[in-house]
Design goal:
11 strands, 2 domains, four-stranded antiparallel β-sheet, Aspartate Aminotransferase, domain 1, single chain, alpha/beta, binds pyridoxal-5'-phosphate
């Protein structure tokens, strides 16, 4: 037997796989338990160059590295999102069950560009899209959509459809002409993927009309109305108004209902970027803050943000499911057979720029099925309540400022006693010191010339006492 044959036999040996799998799960379970006990640093203090030194490209010709020892080092060197003091970016500490589903999906590898390459995940994907369509308030039988790898791809997917809908020609074939004929309208708080989408679509960054926000960082309706009027007067076709629910920096939810009203008046596509806050549709209580979302043409929701899924799984839901085919159902006869795409809805690549993808529907579907919808509603409610309670705590303490009263689980705050000569510098310094010592992972943001510390409360194990201790830590540094 050749070396390769014996190597393949051991690489694909079910017995070795079973025992390796058990050891991997043991390692991760031990890590999760230690993280829950708040042991170890949240983020180990390695610079990018130190990390490069730790992970050189010194691959042996014949293998031999102990897989568990290697994985143990990966776990140790990583940012520990299961640590309750992880309060940084909007990336969740995934449910162990969802992570296992991701693993199973990677193993089965039924990427679903076409139905036959992912029969189960195709059906699961349609079911979760329709279920979320119902929660959004769309007619689930009319609505449809697709799952993408992330909110950035999701925003692009929805805006490509909006662009085709708004354009007077087949943009896919003929391109965007003339320059300046199409624009997008979004608030000054919109996620950068929206501007990037405009750039990718060939509209140019300058085609994005930036609408100012109010004191709570929500899109100003008077300014939106003026932008729509101006676009009309200048003969510029508005591809879409993009509303945030909520915004990346502060979690602000734009006034969706009133925005929908203006979009209806001007006949403009409304896209709601609910990558962060759209998950709240699972909760009857929180759903009320999203009133008007049901009038959107398209909505994006990241399951890997507020639905405890591992990155990445994004729902792109269209009120009118037919629109989801508008961009990508170009004739690829060898794959789709040139049929009406609504008849071949199950070939999902007709709705997304991706070809092969992971079994994205699996984690969302099987998590909802096994844990139940009320589990997710209760989780989102708890995190939003924690954000509001933390906001109150900050507001009550002397010398602390909030950027805005938190709408949900994103809180921007700063410590600025009157004697501070440079409060902006202090926030940046204290954040760096805390992250370096490994006690918390938090981020910072700049809003209207002020630097704020910023927490996203996304780990279900984070408690108000952790956040109170964080305030004390900052005060001690001052
Ligand atoms: C409002 C909003 N939209 C889009 C995105 C991009 O999502 P993703 O990181 O999944 O590409 C983010 C990411 O934080 C976001 O906050």
């Amino acid at each position: 037997m050749s070396d390769l044959d014996s190597d393949l036999d051991s690489a694909f040996d079910p017995g070795s796989f079973r025992s390796l799998g058990h050891r991997v799960v043991d390692l991760l379970a031990d890590h999760m338990a230690a993280a829950a006990r708040r042991e170890g640093p949240v983020l180990p203090p390695f610079t990018p160059m130190q990390s490069m030194d730790r992970w050189p490209a010194d691959f042996p010709a014949r293998g031999g590295e102990d897989p568990i020892a290697l994985l143990a080092r990966v776990v140790s060197d990583s940012n520990h999102l299961h640590h309750p003091c992880y309060v940084g970016h909007q990336v969740t500490s995934p449910l162990p069950w969802s992570a296992l589903l991701d693993f199973a999906g990677a193993f089965l590898n039924n990427g679903s560009a076409v139905y036959e390459m992912g029969p189960v995940s195709t059906a699961m994907e349609r079911s979760v899209v329709r279920w979320f369509a119902g929660r959004i308030g769309f007619d689930p039988l009319l609505a449809d959509g697709v799952l993408t790898h992330g909110g950035s791809a999701g925003n692009l997917t929805a805006l490509l459809a909006a662009r085709q809908h708004a354009a007077s020609c087949d943009v896919w074939e003929e391109g965007v002409t003339p320059a300046g004929a199409l624009c997008l309208i979004a608030s000054d708080q919109t996620h950068y993927s929206v501007r990037r989408s405009a750039q990718i679509m060939g509209l140019g960054g300058r085609s994005v009309v930036s609408v100012p926000t109010d004191t709570r960082y929500r899109m100003r309706l008077d300014a939106l109305a003026a932008s729509l009027r101006n676009a009309k007067a200048e003969g510029c076709t508005v591809v879409a108004v993009v509303a945030s629910a909520g915004s990346t920096a502060t979690g602000a939810i734009d006034p969706l209902d009133a925005i929908a009203e203006l979009c209806a008046e001007y006949g403009v596509w409304l896209h709601v970027d609910g990558a962060h806050g759209g998950g709240a549709v699972v909760s009857d209580r929180l759903r009320t803050a999203l009133r008007g979302i049901e009038r959107a043409d398209s909505v994006v929701i990241d399951a890997h943000k507020m639905l405890l899924a591992p990155a990445l799984a994004t729902l792109v839901v269209f009120q009118n499911g037919r629109r989801s085919f508008e961009t990508f159902s170009q004739q690829a006869v060898y794959i789709f057979g040139g049929q009406d795409p609504t008849e071949t809805w199950y070939d999902l690549a007709q709705r997304t720029l991706e070809c092969t993808k992971r079994m994205l529907g699996l984690q969302v579907y099987a998590s909802l099925k096994v844990l139940g919808t009320s589990f997710f509603a209760a989780y989102v409610e708890r995190m939003y309540d924690l954000g509001r309670a933390f906001g109150e705590l900050v507001a009550q303490r002397p010398h602390w400022e909030l950027a805005t009263v938190p709408e949900g689980n994103i809180v921007c705050f700063r410590y600025a006693p009157p004697h501070f000569a440079n409060a902006n510098e202090f926030q940046a310094h204290v954040r760096e010191a805390i992250v370096r010592e490994g006690s918390y992972y938090l981020v910072k943001t700049s809003l209207r010339g002020k630097t704020y510390l910023r927490c996203t409360l996304i780990n279900p194990r984070t408690e108000l006492s952790d956040l109170e201790a964080l305030l004390l830590r900052v005060e001690a540094e001052a």
